[in-house]
Design goal:
The complex is a heterodimer of chains A (about 170) and B (about 550).
Chain A lengths: L2 H19 L4 E2 L4 E4 L4 E3 L10 E6 L4 H12 L1 H8 L2 E6 L9 H7 L5 E4 L4 H5 L7 E5 L4 E6 L6 H13 L6
Chain B lengths: L6 H21 L5 E14 L13 E13 L2 E10 L12 E12 L3 E8 L13 E2 L4 E2 L2 E11 L2 E12 L2 E15 H4 L8 E13 L13 E13 L2 E10 L14 E12 L2 E11 L42 E13 L11 E13 L1 E3 L11 E3 L5 E16 L4 E13 H4 L7 E14 L4 E11 L7 E10 L3 E9 L11 E11 L2 E10 L2 E5 L2 E5 L2 E11 L1
Antiparallel strand pairs in B: 1-2, 1-30, 2-3, 3-4, 4-5, 5-8, 6-7, 8-9, 9-10, 10-11, 11-12, 12-13, 13-14, 14-15, 15-16, 16-17, 17-20, 18-19, 20-21, 21-22, 22-23, 23-24, 24-25, 25-26, 26-27, 27-30, 28-29
The chains are: A alpha+beta (about 170), B mainly beta (about 550).
Chain lengths: ~170, ~550
């Protein structure tokens, strides 16, 4: 491999290290989305009476996203009992698939609030590169945890974070 | 019309944005927040004549971008720095060099949002306007100009846009102007607020202006207008949506400079209840290619978006022969059923079973070509019957079962039968239609909370084209930080024995909070790579790829 390639890698690593050194709490920016029945929904309306909130970006064509959300759905009643969590599943499906979101969501019997981000406006505003990408918000609506990939059994980690948030504990 | 900023001004801007933030952290003052994301892909290429991978003179390719978004109360601003220092193979070579092609400032209140600079926008389903980005595909048709969004009265939403479109590292020659209005009757009239039926009505108008240089063979319209109307009705378990769009005559390179007006119709209906979902959709597209430069080709400077009504597959063999909308004309429909067999039922077993059945079919329109000698208005062709089906372009029947057998073991099984008109979909009439049977098994076994293994076994059977393929992938995950994967795609059915190539690949990835580092080595098959209905042709390659994805 030539020098330029290695130099490029070093530079890129440096940028990510510097940038990820700053970790400040962020709120969800105000963006217009749609509900599954086509109504306008602004992200300012995201709330859960001081209990934890999960925002999960997904798409009908994203297999890991569906594995994650179906995995959570299996025990979601229990999660709500334990933490009071509310989950917003934000679909980035565009008009090719957005009409299939509601039948899919109901077909899977998900108890989530599903929102449509047809042109990826919220995805962009929240700096999401790829789906799945999951955020956890605390009582003040601040992002305290995020994860941008799905691994088998990742639900356990998410539940652990939610329990801490529900108790008002700090997330490292 | 080159608006690219210089490097010096980029770094000054960056410092300007970052410095108050640094101060804010020190003093605790509210000076806003700055966040962003970053991605780079670097490839090192080896020449490999066995798969047709050419020698790349610069040996490496690199694409990278950094987004920065600053917000403080009602004000926000941001930019994206992009670099293509030798764009990756398969990207349009017009992605060259570095620059800030995306930058914006916006002010947002409940009633009003004003954006100056670059923005992405969609009216309705996008039939007459959609600007969006897909960095992985090198797709970006952002508008650069002004956008105003108004919410003057409850239930009324208005959007106005005015700008030039992005074309690789510069901007296109045509001005795009548009307005969209949507009314939600249940919000507008308090008497309807509690009604079970909700109705939304929308309308939009878009016009492009491009001067006629007068150098072409025809006199072309300098202003081209397009409009669309849409309706959305929802009642309990049923949703019905429809949108119709019309465009005046718009001779262009894409439609072979014909003067026929354009049309598009998109209709969908769905029914769903807990455990059951059904949807049916149809579309008709007739000469609806719409660009801000009449001479643009491939995916460049498109103003509108005509979605493909076929299932969007992600497993490689299922997406081997992918559908792509023919903007010049097609007609098609799709039906999809999802059903959940409950826990404890014979088919549901202990954990429940998910079933998905999908069918889609796309054909050309039923048209008759007009004899150029008598076609004085140069309409090009006429429709023999409005909803008639012509030559078949694409068809896909697929069935998917998603099942958990034990707390440790899950699988997804998919079967698909596809018809792919290679001559039309790849624009090369010498090719025949390809019929293929595809089977996929995705098996996941979890050893512990942190250790799991996944197998992806795929097979594509066809007598046409390159013949049958077998594909396998094994992926080890050591949650939450590591994953290792190895895969091979083998064209064992190729009638030319020397071309029965193995495309092997190995990948190691490391995840640290919201950063992801990935290195892979292997051979990449030449093919069509699609995301969200947009496709890009990827040439064969052999070499290392290094990727960093970060968000902060």
């Amino acid at each position: 491999m030539n020098k330029r390639f290695l130099l490029g890698i070093t530079f890129a690593l440096l940028i990510t290290t510097v940038l990820s050194a700053q970790q400040k709490l962020q709120k969800v920016p105000p963006v217009d989305l749609k509900t599954m029945d086509g109504k306008a929904f602004n992200t300012r309306s995201i709330s859960n009476d001081g209990k934890p909130i999960v925002i999960s970006f997904w798409a009908t064509w994203c297999a890991p996203c569906k594995k994650e959300l179906n995995g959570i759905a299996e025990n979601f009643d229990e999660w709500v009992k334990q933490t009071g969590v509310k989950l917003y599943a934000v679909s980035i499906d565009d008009s090719r698939n957005s009409a299939k979101v509601a039948p899919y969501v109901n077909g899977q019997a998900w108890d989530y609030t599903v929102l449509l981000d047809e042109n990826s406006d919220l995805k962009r505003a929240m700096n999401v590169n790829n789906v799945p990408h999951t955020f956890v918000l605390n009582a003040a609506g601040e992002i305290v945890w995020q994860n941008n990939n799905y691994t088998e059994g990742g639900e356990a980690k998410l539940l652990e974070v939610l329990k801490k948030v529900a108790k008002g504990e700090k997330i490292d | 019309m080159k608006l690219t900023l210089t490097h010096t001004s980029f770094f000054s801007l960056l410092l300007f944005l970052v410095s108050p933030f640094a101060q804010a952290q020190n003093t605790g003052m509210n000076l806003g927040e700055i966040h962003g994301n970053f991605q780079t892909d670097m490839q090192y290429y080896n020449a490999d004549p066995s798969i047709g991978a050419p020698a790349v003179p610069e040996k490496t390719g690199m694409n990278g971008f950094l987004n920065l978004n600053y917000t403080r109360d009602k004000f926000s601003a941001g930019l994206r720095y992009e670099t293509y220092l030798g764009a990756l193979q398969g990207f349009d070579p017009r992605y060259k060099g570095t620059g800030i092609l995306y930058r914006y400032a916006a002010y947002t209140t409940d009633e009003l949002q004003v954006t100056v600079g670059s923005f992405y926008e969609q009216f309705g389903n996008g039939l007459i306007l959609r600007t969006y980005e897909d960095r992985g595909l090198g797709y970006d048709n952002a508008l650069e100009g002004l956008r105003v969004k108004l919410h003057p009265y409850k239930g009324v939403y208005i959007k106005c846009i005015y700008g030039l479109q992005r074309s690789f590292m510069t901007y296109g020659p045509g001005t795009v102007r548009g307005v969209d209005a949507e009314v939600n009757f249940n919000e507008l009239f308090t008497s309807l607020a509690s009604k079970k039926t909700s109705i939304l009505l929308g309308g939009s108008f878009v016009s492009k202006f491009q001067p006629d240089a007068g150098t072409g063979a025809y006199i072309v319209p300098q202003n081209v207008g397009a409009w669309a109307e849409r309706l959305n009705i929802h009642r309990e378990k049923i949703t019905i949506q429809a949108e119709y769009a019309y465009k005046i005559n718009d001779p262009s390179f894409a439609n072979n400079y014909i003067y026929k007006p354009g049309e598009a119709l998109l209709v969908s209906a769905s029914y769903s209840q807990k455990g059951l979902g059904f949807s049916l959709s149809g579309k008709r597209v007739d000469n609806m290619d719409f660009r801000s430069d009449r001479s643009a080709s491939i995916n460049n400077l498109e103003i509108n978006y005509l979605p493909s009504l076929t299932r969007q597959h992600t497993y490689s063999m299922l997406a081997f022969y992918p559908d792509a909308t023919q903007n010049t004309g097609e007609i098609g429909y799709q039906a999809e059923l999802t059903y959940k067999f409950n826990k404890g039922t014979p088919l549901g077993g202990k954990y429940g079973t998910n079933l998905l059945v999908n069918f889609s079919s796309v054909s050309g329109l039923d048209t008759a070509r007009l004899n150029p000698a008598s076609d004085s208005s140069r309409a090009g062709y006429k429709n023999r019957s409005y909803f008639g089906f012509g030559q078949k372009y694409f068809e896909d029947f697929n069935i998917e079962i998603d099942k958990k057998l034990s707390p440790k073991f899950k699988f997804i099984a998919i079967y698909s039968y596809q018809t792919y008109n290679k001559g039309v979909l790849q624009g090369e009439p010498q090719y025949h239609t390809i019929y293929s049977h595809i089977g996929v098994m995705d098996l996941i076994y979890k050893f512990s909370d942190t250790l799991s293994i996944r197998f992806e076994l795929e097979h594509l059977y066809t007598k046409e084209d390159q013949g049958a393929w077998a594909s396998g992938l094994v992926e080890f995950t050591i949650a939450p930080k590591w994953f290792v994967a190895a895969s091979d795609q083998w064209n064992y059915g190729n009638s030319i024995v020397a071309d029965q190539t193995h495309y092997y690949n190995g990948t190691i990835g490391y995840i640290q909070k919201t950063n992801r580092y990935q290195i892979s080595y292997g051979k990449q098959r030449a093919g069509i790579y699609c995301v969200g209905g947009v496709c890009r042709t990827v040439p064969a390659s052999n070499g290392f790829t290094f990727t960093i994805i970060s968000s902060f």
